Amino acid sequence: MGDARTVRAVNALTSGWAGRALRRSEETVFSAAGVWPLLALLAAGADGAARDELERATGVGAGEAAGAAGRLLARLDALPGVASAIGLWSRATVPLEPGWAGALPPASHGVLSGDVAADRAALDAWADKRSGGLVPRLPIPFGEGTELVLAGALTVRTDWLRPFDEHGGVLYRTTALLDRVEVVEAPCGRVTVLKVLGTGGIDVHLLRGETGVPGGEVLTAGVGALRRAYPAVPGDRLPYGEPGPGVTVSRVHGWDRRPYLSVTTVPFEVTAHHDLLDHAGLFGLAAATDDSRGHFPGISRRPLAVGAAGQTVTAAFSALGYRSAAVTAISGIAGGVAPSTAKQVDAEFTGSIGFLTVHRTSRLVLNAGWVNARLPEEDWDGWDESGDDAGGAA
Predict the structure, then answer these.
(1) Which pTM value belongs to this model?
(2) 260 neighbors 23 (Cβ within 8 angstroms)
(3) Angle at 351 between CA 231 and CA 17, to 5 degrees
(4) Which of 2, 323, 1, 7 is nearest to 154 (CA)?
(5) Which among 357, 374, 191, 133 has a CA at the least distance from the CA of 267?
(6) pLDDT tens, residue by residue, 15-73
(7) Closest to 39 in 3D by CA, of 119, 151, 162
(8) Cα distances (Å, whole numbers) of residue 158 to 30, 62, 98, 180, 318
(9) Architecture of domain 1-78+82-156+268-315 in CATH?
(10) Which domain of life is it from (predicted)?
C-alpha cells in the first residue's frame, strides 16, 4: 500500500484521536487518513513552533512531508473502491510558493473570487462531488477573512466477499473459518475482533470490549492489534466457555463434525462532524492558530495562520458491504495576520462496538468509529395472548 513509516504515522494519529476525542461512548466516526495528508502539506510550508508541532503530529520531517503526502494520496487513489482528492483555493492576493504548490496534484488549485456566497457554493459543490453526495458541505465556516482553503476528500466502498443474511434488521453469517474472530488481551482488557473481508483488499474490523470500557480505549486496542502489539487468541484456539466479550464457545451435536463460527450483528449508519481545533495539540495546529504572525512562509510570502479546521465523516455498514466518505478542510486567514460433536464459536457484535476500516496488506486504518448497535426490539403489537395458533402448523 505504501511507506510503512507513513502507515505507522497515520495509525498513530488514529489512536491519538480515539483516545482524546472518544472519552465517552457517544457514536462517532473519523478519518485520520483524511486529515494526515493536509497536515503534512502544512508542515512542508511551516516554520517556527508551527513547524515543530506539525512534525510531531505527522511523525515526519517537514522536508519530506509533502512527498510523503503525495505518495499516500496516490496510493490511496490507486486502491479499488477508494478515491482521494486534494483541493486548494486561494485569493489572488495570496501568491503561492512554486515549490510548495508544485507538490499538489495537477488541476487541484482554484481561485477564491472574494464573493463569499459564490465561493462557498463552489467549495460545497467540490465536497459534494468528491464525496459522492455523502458530504454536501465543506466542514468549516467561510467568510470575508478566509484567504486560503486546503481540503481533502476520501471515500471507501467495499462489498463483502460473503454477504450477511439479514432478518428483521439483524445480520447473520456462518463460516468454517474460525480465525476470522480473535480475542486480544489489551491494556483495557479483553477485546474481541471480527474481520469482515471485502473486495479491493478493504476489510472492516468490528471490535467489542468489556462492559464499561470507554470506546476510545477499545479503538486504540484495535489499532494496536493490527501491528500485533498484544497477545491474541484466534477463534480455533479459544477455550470453551465465554473467552471474550460477546463470544461463546461450545460443543454442539450434529452430523457435521467441522467447527464453525456464527456471527450476529446489526447494520448501522453514523455521521459525525469534528472541529479539529478542539484538539489542536493533537493535530499540530495550536501554534498555527496564533494570528498575530504568519506561520507558513513556505506556502506564501503573505503571512497566514490557521483560521478553522474541520472534518465531516459518514459511514454505513450493511449486509452487502461498507461505504464511507470523509471531507476535511483547513482554512488560512491573514496572520499578523449428532453422533459426534463439533466446536461452535458464536460471536455477537451488538451493543456498543467499535469498527476500523483497514487496508488488508498494509494495515492502514482508513477510518474508525464507535456505534451503539442495538438489536431491534421485538414488536409485540398484535400478539395473540390466548395462545391459539390461527395459522395452523408451521
Answers:
(1) 0.91
(2) no
(3) 60
(4) 323
(5) 374
(6) 999 988 776 668 999 999 999 999 999 999 999 999 999 999 999 999 999 999 999 99
(7) 151
(8) 18, 34, 38, 17, 11
(9) 2-Layer Sandwich (3.30)
(10) Bacteria
pLDDT in tens, 103-115: 998 889 999 999 9
Written as nine digits, the cell of 348 is 455477537
**Fold of the domain built from segment(s) 159-265+318-324+338-373:** Alpha-1-antitrypsin; domain 1 (2.30.39)
Phi and psi of 156, rounded to 5°? -135, 130
**Cell 510523503 belongs to residue:** 68
Nearest CA among 29, 31, 18, 25 for reference residue 352: 25
For residue 4, give Cα distances in angstroms to 1, 59, 72.
Answer: 8, 12, 11
Joined grid coordinates for residue 390: 390461527
Instruction: List, by residue range, all CATH 3.30.497.10 domains of the chain.
Output: 1-78+82-156+268-315
DSSP sequence for 81-121: TEEEEEEEEEETTSPBPHHHHTTSPTT-EEEE-S-HHHHHH
C-alpha closest to that of 261 among 238, 289, 294, 231: 238
Residue 207 vs residues 28, 192, 223, 325: alpha-carbon distances, Å: 14, 6, 10, 21
Taking alpha carbons only, the member of 286, 281, 289 closest to residue 331 is 289
The segment(s) of the chain belonging to CATH 2.30.39 are: 159-265+318-324+338-373
